[in-house]
Amino acid sequence: MFSRKREGAKHVRAADAPPSKALAKSLAADGGAPAPEFGPWDAKHAPDDVQRLDLGSLQIPAIEGVEVRVQANPDGAVEQIVLVDGESALQIGVFAAPKTEGIWGEVREEIATAMTADGVDAREVDGRYGIELIARVNTPDGPADVRFVGVDGPRWMVRALFQGAAAADRSKEGVLGDALEGMVVVRDEEPRPVREPLPLRLPAEMAEQNAEQNPAQQV
């Protein structure tokens, strides 16, 4: 439901989609104003007294009760990140974006359009980070609630997908909400097409475990 269009990178103009609160605060901070009150943080604003799992372009705070499940290919490149707490899950993606324009509005519209085409009723609601998208989708295990949250930052966008109890009731985010607001995006200086996934990698110890589990893939 979220992919780059074949005709090339497209993004909205600033007049079409004003920066999110997080992006606006981040841009203001570049001019000397206070940094954002909470994350996901751009690396230059992140508190330095927090233990985090370093996945390259994304760092996830170590929070008791949050299980971090990382799916990677045999080379150690991370393909999926899911945080789990009880009956709730949070899937995270981080993508390239323009420095001064948010793309979550356009991405959200495309997700809603795809859901509607599948016969799913997707609704927009106000949330902590701005407009969110909620829906009830059909799964092999029956109907399930999902909630998409987008955060625009300087040259990046975080897309968060809540599932389970935290999707049906925002007040039940608990530690998953804490994990989201404590994440740090480390955007490299490489020019990248808008919406291209930022590079993620396994930490050294996890990469070693991955190599041991896939010996046939090693050169």
TrEMBL record:
Composition skew (Low complexity), residue ranges: 197-219
Source taxon at top rank: Bacteria
Entries under Pfam families matching the protein: DUF3710
Region (Disordered): 1-47, 188-219
Basic and acidic residues bias: start-end ranges: 1-14
Protein name in the entry: DUF3710 domain-containing protein
Organism, scientific name: Actinoplanes palleronii
